[in-house]
Amino acid sequence: MAISNKTPTINDVARAAGVSKKTVSRVINRSALLKQDTRKKVEAVIAELGYVPNPQARALALRRNFLLGLLHDNPNAQTVLNFQEGVLDAIRDTEFALVVRPVDRHSPKMLEDIRHFLEQQRLYGVLILPPISENDELAALCREMGCGYVRMGSAPLDDEEHIVASNDREMVESAVDYLVESGHRRIGIIKGPEGFRSALERSEGFMAAMRKHGLAVPAELVAQGTYRFESGLDAAGQLLDREQRPTAIFCSNDEMAAGALHAARQRKVSVPADLSIIGFDDSPIAAHIWPPLTTVGWPIREMAKAAALKLVAPADERAQDYIFPARLVQRQSVAPPPDKF
Amino acid sequence: MAISNKTPTINDVARAAGVSKKTVSRVINRSALLKQDTRKKVEAVIAELGYVPNPQARALALRRNFLLGLLHDNPNAQTVLNFQEGVLDAIRDTEFALVVRPVDRHSPKMLEDIRHFLEQQRLYGVLILPPISENDELAALCREMGCGYVRMGSAPLDDEEHIVASNDREMVESAVDYLVESGHRRIGIIKGPEGFRSALERSEGFMAAMRKHGLAVPAELVAQGTYRFESGLDAAGQLLDREQRPTAIFCSNDEMAAGALHAARQRKVSVPADLSIIGFDDSPIAAHIWPPLTTVGWPIREMAKAAALKLVAPADERAQDYIFPARLVQRQSVAPPPDKF
DNA sequence: ACGAGATAGGAAACCGGTGTCAAAGTGTAT
DNA sequence: ATACACTTTGACACCGGTTTCCTATCTCGT
């Protein structure tokens, strides 16, 4: 009788179906011990009333909510967005939602801010993107607060349960293999910023691969970058101004590779005829610069999905994989070295 | 005595402070009718226990939660991320959080999906990014469901209360002014995809500005794009292959401008010496291609903040502004036309 | 000193779900 | 028909806040 004009609650359903709240709750939660008749009847009423359980009430009663957090300070927008899409792939058709939280790595209050955020929102769990995923204090904070977490990274830097990683080292190796097969011997590297695990993995992978091929990497072919476009411009400039310049440059990410391309153009060095450039990340910019950049891509979206499932999926359904392979994306910035070399 | 090892609740605080729950609640909510003594006492206990109110319980009792949603299907990652940052600027230090939801504009179930999402999460309000912000059915859905919403756009397409817009038309005009001042007369345009309001605003703004300068825009100088890189490549190709090609091209976004740059390079047309190109959006790619792109930027982050405040701020504190000015960003892709013209 | 009006604080119900446990129903063996 | 085990359902308390309504206390004027 008392038909409410507001959104129906579990009580409305119970009354309309002539059963108790608890029975409706059982229907919602797919409890096994229900007679088919009852279930059907209640489901019919639910459909008729358009009842949807209130997530806040559920969260309160269950003492846990259905919010996943995404903590990131990633400079690459496309990476972050792809990651968001991947998480959505995992939680679509569930009651979970994704809360985003960009953080400022350079702020001295960062940890305090995040603590406050976690306390206040009481998230079910958080996903942490590199580079801050490399911050062990942050992981410790999550543990301390009893908040589930998964760290994305370029190397396994936590328990299997808390990490989803790409195998950067191996992929750098295949990039170097490719350059060597193309005939290059004098290969330079623009490293990523110190203190970044991914930068370390990439540069060590590079050194290891060069060693494998019996090639030297003199200091004059190593330049330091920051993962930013401008640093790629500067670093490549240094490399190209050496007395004997490299015939190929491995850039630790695509933005720096784009910068390197600029540096080459400024010096009238033609890519790939005079100089081969290879990037890392397969960010969208890679396809939109000239020449299109050969690079190494990692499956962010799949990794994101796996990470979200690690938090959300019932333990027995969890995929065991936590290290993902990257792949070489061949475009047009690599060619055999010029003859004179 | 009964010190709990779990996170403290309002009851714990009340007991420890020797007051009732309600009094603690009053302290939390800054109720005016409290003696200073009591307030201080309770605040001390709160600080000591590290009490933080449970947002789910609050949401339940208040019949509203503190979640803002972001609905987007924007192809430009940087725009989306900047927007997220802007929203965070607005809700930092509040109890609100931002839930993201990428949507698929091409899915026939899009509206149904969003309805389900809104029903399930019961968001406080949603922010809608272009291009789906132009979907009136979606706005109607929000109204029907009693969900607050603000649409971002390139023109005022809803009540003042529900819109934050940039003035694309005016900005295109200033871009054209700039080209004309530089000496260009034969100016082409690559339009955005049909059905996009922003595309319409930009192309109409272009036509109006050309008319103002008494310049004709023959059909052969108009090309259709889709806002994507490849379409810019194709469209610019068409324009450049005309018998008498333009000396400048206005591109309705930066990605297409990047494509246009490629098309010029393929044809050995030098930019800006032989051809000027101007973009729109000031996306990061604009600074990272060669030559750096002159473009029109709009203050996404500020607009995002304003949009979030429209939902979150008390009515009396709301800024009245809802149309934001863009600005011309001069880089190096525009120069006077070559002499022969 | 006393009653009126304002002010501070508390008791209990409520928001919309879930957990516990006992009651009711069902079917089978005796 | 009775006892017994097992399935199905409901009553009630509870999660952690807010709201309503009421009482105790505190001025203050006379």
Q: What integer is the average pLDDT of chain A?
A: 92
Strand content of chain A: 5-15%
Largest interface: A-B, 41 and 42 residues
SSE order of chain A, one letter for each helix or strand: HHHHEHEHEHEEHEHEHEHEHEHEE
Oligomer: homodimer
Report the strand count of chain A. Answer: 12
- Give the number of helices of chain A: 13
Tell me the structural class of chain A: alpha/beta
Numbering strands along the chain, what is their spatial order in the largest sheet of chain A?
2-1-3-4-5-11
Sheet having the most strands of chain A: 6 strands, parallel
Supply Rg of chain A. 26 Å
User: What does the overall shape of chain A look like?
Assistant: elongated
Helix content of chain A: 40-55%
The end-to-end distance of chain A, rounded to whole angstroms, is: 90 Å
In short:
The structure is a homodimer of 341-residue chains. Chain A is an alpha/beta fold.
Write the layout of secondary structure elements.
The structure is a homodimer of 341-residue chains.
Chain A: H1 10-17, H2 21-28, H3 36-49, H4 55-62, E1 67-72, H5 77-91, E2 97-102, H6 110-121, E3 125-128, H7 136-144, E4 148-153, E5 163-166, H8 168-181, E6 187-191, H9 197-212, E7 222-224, H10 229-240, E8 248-251, H11 254-266, E9 276-278, H12 285-288, E10 295-297, H13 300-312, E11 323-324, E12 327-329
Parallel strand pairs in A: 1-2, 1-3, 3-4, 4-5, 5-11, 6-7, 6-8, 8-9
Antiparallel strand pairs in A: 10-12
Helix pairs in contact in A: 1-2, 1-3, 5-13, 6-7, 8-9, 10-11
The structure holds a DNA duplex (30 and 30 nucleotides).
